[in-house]
């Protein structure tokens, strides 16, 4: 008998664990109703890939993800990755906030073994459910030696993505996940796993998962915005603001005035782009408008928020040191 690698599956709910009374419907269903044991039993091919051990960490529709679940998930990843005979970890998740959880794990886990997130765009009861193959492929990747040293990965629709890069770009298609800046790292096709590209992070030290989470919110720049939201958030004690700006980080002059006032009170301000792809340029220091705000580089607003959350939780004073905060965003 072959000795298959030991893979731990940590389940958190989502559409992959969703169910519907109508198998012909892929849009009307309730997420996070099917336990992980049932998901695994529906994929008998897993038995020819790995020895599976499963744990139900949460059972939630990922639109309702909260920091407490992130902390619990990080703790279980650390626990299982420290077990000497565990070859890899798979996390099942909902698609709505998968990219945020992936970014959180990317920033907080040293990843001595492969950590692979997977999900589904269609519920488990659908006639064309994509969850079983995604789960099988995720286990194949987690068990594969080429997945080591690649950081946190995301596997859907036979593609392997870096957690830092991947984003959901379609409301319902099975190929909803893309990595806009640089494409996927590799692919899975049956037993063949190929990961020819290696993601590189300048700062390899994992940030600690917070005990206390600062208030960090996202606002958008668009035609004729008011400053009411910014002023209200500052009054409520927000510690950081990420701007989903237009184009190359362009912020409406009304919001610039509000955000400069916010920064003067010690609120960290980060410019991202609402376009979905591309790098937000770092302006010259002399720029009187955007020079006081940090660039999110090519991180979308949601990933930028995760990084800002962790950075301010670790060192609240970073809000008053935009140069150091900018260096952190450039290093991730």
From TrEMBL:
User: Which Pfam families did the record assign?
Assistant: Asparaginase, Asparaginase_C
The family database entries (InterPro entries) matched by this protein are listed as:
AsnASE_II (IPR004550), Asp/glu_Ase-like_sf (IPR036152), Asparaginase/glutaminase-like (IPR006034), Asparaginase/glutaminase_AS1 (IPR020827), Asparaginase/glutaminase_AS2 (IPR027475), Asparaginase_C (IPR040919), L-asparaginase_C (IPR027473), L-asparaginase_N (IPR027474)
Q: Which residues cross the membrane?
A: none
The entry's keywords: Hydrolase
Query: What EC designation does it have?
Result: 3.5.1.1
Residue span(s) of domain Asparaginase/glutaminase C-terminal: 216-316
- Please give the Gene Ontology molecular function terms for this protein: asparaginase activity
Could you tell me which SUPFAM superfamilies the record lists for this protein?
Glutaminase/Asparaginase
Supply the CDD domains for this chain. Answer: L-asparaginase_II (cd08964)
Q: What class of enzyme is it?
A: hydrolase
Q: Where is the active site?
A: 15, 95
Q: Which domain of life is it from?
A: Bacteria
**Span of domain L-asparaginase N-terminal:** 6-196
Q: Which family does it belong to?
A: Belongs to the asparaginase 1 family.
**Protein name in UniProt:** L-asparaginase 2
What organism does this protein naturally occur in?
Cupriavidus laharis
> Which gene holds the coding sequence for this protein?
ansZ
């Amino acid at each position: 008998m072959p000795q298959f690698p030991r893979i731990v599956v940590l389940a958190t709910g989502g559409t992959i664990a969703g169910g519907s009374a109508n198998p012909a419907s892929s849009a009307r269903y309730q997420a996070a109703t099917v336990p992980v044991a049932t998901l695994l039993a529906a994929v008998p091919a897993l038995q020819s890939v790995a020895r599976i051990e499963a744990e139900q960490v949460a059972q939630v529709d990922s639109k309702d993800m909260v920091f407490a679940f992130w902390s619990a998930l990080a703790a279980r990843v650390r626990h299982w990755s420290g077990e000497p005979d565990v070859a890899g970890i798979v996390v099942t998740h909902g698609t709505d906030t998968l990219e945020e959880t992936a970014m959180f794990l990317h920033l907080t886990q040293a990843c001595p073994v492969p950590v692979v997130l997977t999900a589904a765009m269609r519920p488990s009861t659908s006639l064309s459910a994509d969850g079983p193959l995604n789960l099988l492929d995720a286990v194949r990747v987690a068990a594969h030696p080429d997945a080591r040293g690649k950081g946190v990965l995301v596997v859907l629709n036979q593609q392997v993505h870096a957690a830092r890069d991947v984003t959901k770009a379609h409301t319902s298609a099975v190929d909803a996940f893309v990595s806009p800046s640089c494409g996927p790292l590799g692919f899975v096709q049956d037993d063949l796993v190929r990961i020819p590209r290696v993601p590189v992070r300048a700062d390899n030290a994992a940030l600690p998962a917070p005990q206390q989470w600062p208030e960090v919110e996202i606002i958008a720049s668009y035609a004729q915005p008011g400053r009411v939201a910014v002023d209200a958030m500052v009054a409520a004690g927000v510690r950081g603001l990420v701007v989903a700006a237009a184009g190359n980080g362009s912020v409406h002059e009304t919001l610039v005035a509000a955000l400069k006032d916010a920064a003067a009170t010690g609120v960290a301000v980060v410019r991202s782009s609402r376009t979905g792809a591309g790098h937000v340029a770092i302006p010259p220091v002399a720029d009187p408008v955007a020079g006081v705000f940090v660039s999110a580089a090519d991180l979308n607003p949601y990933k930028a928020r995760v990084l800002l959350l962790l950075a301010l939780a670790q060192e609240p004073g970073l809000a008053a040191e935009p140069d150091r905060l900018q260096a952190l965003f450039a290093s991730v």
